[in-house]
Amino acid sequence: MLTLGERCKTHGWFILLNGFLFSLLATSYFHYLPDNQALSTWAYVAVATIGQMCLLAALVGLVTLPLVLIRKQVIRALLTALIFTMALITLYVDTQVFAQYRFHIRLVLVEMILSGGIVEFSKMTYAIVTAAVIATLAVQYGLYIGIDNRASQYKIKLGRRVSYLVLLALISTHISHIWANANAILPITNISRFLPLFYPATANSLLQKYGLVDEQALAEQKTLKRKQKSTLNYPLTPLEYQAVKPKNIVFIVIDSWRADSFSQAITPNMWQFAQQGEIYQNHYSTGNATRAGIFGLFYGLPATYWHSFYSNRQAPILMDRLQQLDYQLGIFASAHLLKPEFHQTVFVNVPDLRVRSKSETMAGRDIEITDEWLAWDKQRDQHQPAFSFLFYDSPHGYTFPKDYPYRIEPQVTEVNYLALNEKTDPQPIINRYNNSVHFNDSLIGKVLKQIKDKGELDNTLVVITGDHGQEINDNKLNFWGHNSNFTDAQIKVPFIALGAGIKPAHNQHISSHMDVAPGILKQYLGLSNPIKQYSTGEDIFNISRSADDWLILASYNEYAIVDDKGILQVSGYNGNYQLMDRYNQPKQGRPDFTELNQAYSQMNRYLK
């Protein structure tokens, strides 16, 4: 029977070895560092990784420390190994999230997955995860038993010396970051986003007293950092409306709809109807995620305003005007409207809001909302104007019914994100994705056909678009999905307007989701105020934006200024930025602060 001191020695060595296991696993984060990093940067990376990962292992060790009181080796080893196993598995999952999205596991991501209706995992994925957990637990248990059986043989001095070296690495990391942050040395400060739960120290105010800061660089970085404000000044002046004869309005939105998947072959129904309307060939969402795209579409504002509008439960002017004109509202979303919180933003004032579908699959929910819309449209009062919103989801999950006849081959049987890497052949995944888009097109065809068969097309404005794009390793940088960068693969979407007052045309101007709400409010709902009083967009039906103009886009925690020259991607938390070309390759140079100040003005125009 080991003494308490020997059990504590076992625990200490187990923590230390896990710290190095964590560090080894964390090296995968830096596979995505830009090339040609200086030797000093790599030295910082090595020291910071060891210090941070050993610190995380020590925190897990602190949680498991009371277990040393358990004398029975099997129980003590199993419980300790189980907790460290869950920590190691969580770290591995985080490396996979980072590989595809370049951010770590976030609370909002976890909430969306756990809330259901966002992600569907196959049985094979569950089996792989279960096997990985069991295998890791076995290794951790064996490691603990091995250390425990030799506890009396380990020298305390050696353990202390190794621990001192780890502590020195941790202290050196924070001292280095204090200096780098005070002088805006981006190759060092940008490393912070690579390591999980890494919050390195800063001391700008202290160093400023001694003249040890780069004042100009800090001022520029402060400009990039956005301060969240909750008080709105929206709209800037009272709204004035002219009398109008309301038209029906239908929004059809496909989650994760790539711009190149709108074609005669993949979307034959929408393609046929689109020839009667205006096709916008250079249209961009307001972000690379659902929350950003839908927010911009309805509010006509950058998605950087999301938190302020959510805090105030402020509906968009578009929805308020529709209700003011007594529109019948039909909101049919395949995925639920609770995460993101559209029930407390876009549709906050909609009575009896339909927030969730019943089917257990994405394809089933898409069929469900189509059938419900068809029934609702037949039963509604035909003498009263109607606004409806159909939000499809299948391409988000690369899904379609098993018996769906359309097939582009070869295709994967499922998209296993855990198996994706730079060497994965994207074509079978693209084929499956396009099959899911074709399936959605078959459903949307029924909606469009019913509008036409009722003779309502000339009295109905139909808008068809996506909330954001979907990258399938387009830029060969191992990005799969969305919400990870601001290249065209993730932000460019199809956009078609047809029906009431729309003439056939192919629009080449740069257009944005920010332009949709102000265009509809001005052309169809009688709003006479200048657009700048309530939106940062233009009139989508009279667009004039050129290729060299810039757009503001956002994700959950970052925003970007995108123009024909490249992408300025900025962390909303600390103002750290990356300059990249339109293919997400690093660029040399500094931000255009004239352009940035104009964008920043737009991001704060409606805040007090």
Structure notes:
This protein has 608 residues and is α/β, with parallel strands linked by helices. It folds into two domains: 4-213, no CATH class; 265-544, Alkaline Phosphatase, subunit A (3-Layer(aba) Sandwich). 44% of the residues lie in helices and 11% in strands. It contains 19 helices and 15 strands. The model has no long low-confidence stretch (mean pLDDT 91).
Question: Quick recap of the structure?
Answer:
This protein is of the alpha/beta class and 608 residues long. Helices cover 44% and strands 11% of the residues. It has two domains: 210 residues, no CATH class; 280 residues, Alkaline Phosphatase, subunit A (3-Layer(aba) Sandwich).
What does the secondary structure layout of this molecule look like, with pairings?
Layout: H1 4-26, H2 39-64, H3 73-101, H4 107-114, H5 123-149, H6 156-182, H7 186-189, H8 204-209, H9 215-224, E1 248-254, H10 268-274, E2 278-280, E3 283-284, H11 290-299, H12 306-312, H13 317-324, E4 328-333, H14 362-379, E5 386-392, H15 394-397, H16 427-453, E6 460-466, E7 471-472, E8 480-481, H17 488-491, E9 495-499, E10 505-507, E11 511-512, H18 516-523, E12 551-554, E13 558-563, E14 566-571, E15 577-580, H19 593-604
Parallel strand pairs: 1-5, 1-6, 2-10, 3-11, 4-5
Antiparallel strand pairs: 2-9, 6-9, 7-8, 12-13, 13-14, 14-15
Helix pairs in contact: 1-2, 1-3, 1-5, 1-6, 2-3, 2-6, 3-5, 10-16, 14-16
Q: What number is the mean pLDDT?
A: 91
Strand content: 5-15%
Derived from helix and strand composition plus strand pairing, the structural class reads alpha/beta
- Head-to-tail CA distance between termini: 68 Å
CATH superfamily grouping of the largest domain: Alkaline Phosphatase, subunit A
**What is the radius of gyration computed over CA atoms, rounded to a whole number of angstroms?**
27 Å
Report the sheet with the most strands, covering strand number, pairing sense and barrel closure: 7 strands, mixed
Shape: globular
Strand order of the largest sheet: 4-5-1-6-9-2-10
What is the CATH architecture assignment of the largest domain? 3-Layer(aba) Sandwich
Low-confidence stretches: none
How many helices? 19
Q: Tell how many strands the DSSP assignment holds.
A: 15
